[in-house]
Description:
The chain is α/β, with parallel strands linked by helices. The chain folds into two domains: about 5-115 and about 305-315, NADH Oxidase (3-Layer(aba) Sandwich); about 130-295, NADH Oxidase (3-Layer(aba) Sandwich), CATH 3.40.109.10. It is built from eight helices and 13 strands. The strands form four sheets. Strands 3-4-2-1-13 form a five-stranded mixed β-sheet. The chain is globular. The two termini are about 15 Å apart. The mean pLDDT is about 90.
Amino acid sequence: MILTETPVVTAALEAAVRAPSPHNTQPWLFELGPDVIDVVLDENRVLTVCDPDRREARLSCGAALLNLELAIAAAGRSCDVELLPEKDRPELLARVGLRARHRATAAEQRLATSIRARYSNRRPFASTPVPAGARHAVRLAAREEGAKLILLDELGLLEAVAGLIRRADHLQTLDEGFQAELRAWTKGDGSHDGVPAYAGGPRPSGGLLPVRHHGESDQTREFERDPVVAVLTTPTDGPLAQVRAGRAMQRALLTATSLGLSASFYSQPMEIPSARTVLRSLLGENEHPHIVFRLGYGFPGSTTPRRPAGAVTRIRP
C-alpha cells in the first residue's frame, strides 16, 4: 500500500503549496513514493534575474517543507525529515518519511491552522505598536529552527537598513530585466500563480520604506513611518542553511499570523549581491541574512492563488 495516497498526505500537500515564494512563483515539486514525500526545487520556476543563485527558491521550499510537516502532525502522523539527502542531486532539498501515529501538540495545531490564514499583506499597516510579547514569540519561533530574528528598531539599525532597501529598490526600478520579470509574474484574475492586481497593494506615497508594487493600479497610499522590520539570519550560508532559513521564516510568519499580525517582504536588498553584503556588514560578519520583512497589524486582505497539489506532484523516480 502506498501510504502517500492517503488523506493525510493530500492534506499535507495542500498545506505545502500555501508557502510564500518570490512573485508567487511556487518553485517546488513533490515526489511521492511508499511512505515518502520528496521536496524538489523546480528549476523551471526559478527567477533568472532576481534569484539566479536560487537562494529565494530554496527559502520557499524550506517554508513549504515546514507546512508539510505541520499538516502531517495535525493529521495525526509523525514524520522523519532529512535535508539534502542525495549529494549528486542538489535539487532534491528534503525527504519526508511518514511514521507512526502522533498526537499533535497545541502549538502544532495552532500553526497548522494558521497556514491558510497567512498571506503577504502589501497594504499599509495600522499604527498600533507590536507588543513585546509578540516580538518575543516570533523571535523564539525562528530560534526553534536554528535561526536568529533581528528586530532592527531594537538595535538602532532601522534607518541604516531602510536606506539600503531604498537604494536597492531604486536599482531594481532602473533594471529593465527585473521590471520585465516582475510584469511577467503580475497576473490577472484566474491564474494559479503570480501576484494578481488585487493582492499587489497600492503604490506607496509616503512612509519609511518602499513596499514592492505589483499591477497597474495608480492608487496611492501612505505607508507606516515607523515599521517593525525583521531580518532573519543564520550562522552559515549555502543550500542547507537556506532550506533551514526557509523553515525558520515560515515558523516565524505562522506564529505572527496566529497572534493576529500581518507581514510582507522587503526582498530588494537580498536580490542585489552588493546590497546583501552591506546588510551583512551592518548586522555583523557572523550573521548571514536571508530575508527582510515587516510586521504589524494589517487591514484585511486576500490570499494569492496557488496551483492545485496535483499539478506539483509526481511519482518518485
